Amino acid sequence: MVNLEWYRTFKEIYENGTLTKASIALYASQPGVSVHLNALEAYVGKKLFERTSRKMIPTEDGKFLYEYIIESLKKLEIAEQHFKKTTQEKNPSLNIGMCSEMFQLIIEPEIPKLDFDLVARFGAHTDLIKDLNNGILDLVITPKKQNEKKSLVEYVPFSKERIVLIAGNKTNTSEIKKHIKSKNTNKLEAKLLQNIWYSSSNEMEHFRRFWFENFNKKPAFKPNYILPNITSIIRCLNNGNGFALVPDFLCREQILRNEINLVWEGKVKTENTLYFASRTDLKYKKKLDTIKNIFTSKMK
């Protein structure tokens, strides 16, 4: 008999493009995701993806299967969330979505103090907002505000994140800081290009934006190491060598502990406004306020 989780896994691989991203979205291990996909392919008797070094490319059978099951899966997810809400009145559950790094830094340490159930989901901001509109999620932390007519979602700004240039504390930054001080962006860019660079698959947009706003051009190079998330980058740079562009609030503690160095905030501020996106028909507003207060207190 087919396992419904195989279809969920197939959906995430199809929409995210890689096993790594799918495992993050499912909050599962990558080997577990591979096992589910292999089991589904064996069950249907068809190859659903072409495996490449960078991406999982759906076959024609894979595309057909996705179109056939997607609406049913979405309806099932909505039904599951609504069913939970009606059967758990004595112990209310709040469903939230955000990037994994933000959850680990802000929410994870506070979970033992909560007096209600919490279900966290990670993924692309556009996908999380879709789940919010569909009633699957109650709150999303997002840097992107979507203006949709007749939407039950409201956006409230609560903080800003600034993209900054950091380096491992074993990185020689003397010449780079010299060019920053003299405002010689041509020599600064040339020197930066000679170094080791880290980035993450979900932060390449920030990387390109910082570069364009400060050097008036797109970055003409590919980072040496593209990792699953920013937390991994910071760990690699901890007492190491190399550069990265990351949101400031994710690396403040490491900078204070001298584990990494803040090199440059940019001649132009590369900032994102962070929003609480929540449903206006939410029943447990006091629980929502608890989560909001955690964010506002930690991101002052």
TrEMBL record:
Residues 2-59 form the HTH lysR-type domain. Keywords: DNA-binding, Transcription, Transcription regulation. It comes from Maribacter vaceletii. The keyword Oxidoreductase does not apply. InterPro entries: LysR_HTH_N (IPR000847), LysR_subst-bd (IPR005119), WH-like_DNA-bd_sf (IPR036388), WH_DNA-bd_sf (IPR036390). Signal peptide: none annotated. GO terms for molecular function: DNA-binding transcription factor activity; transcription cis-regulatory region binding. This is DNA-binding transcriptional LysR family regulator. Belongs to the LysR transcriptional regulatory family.
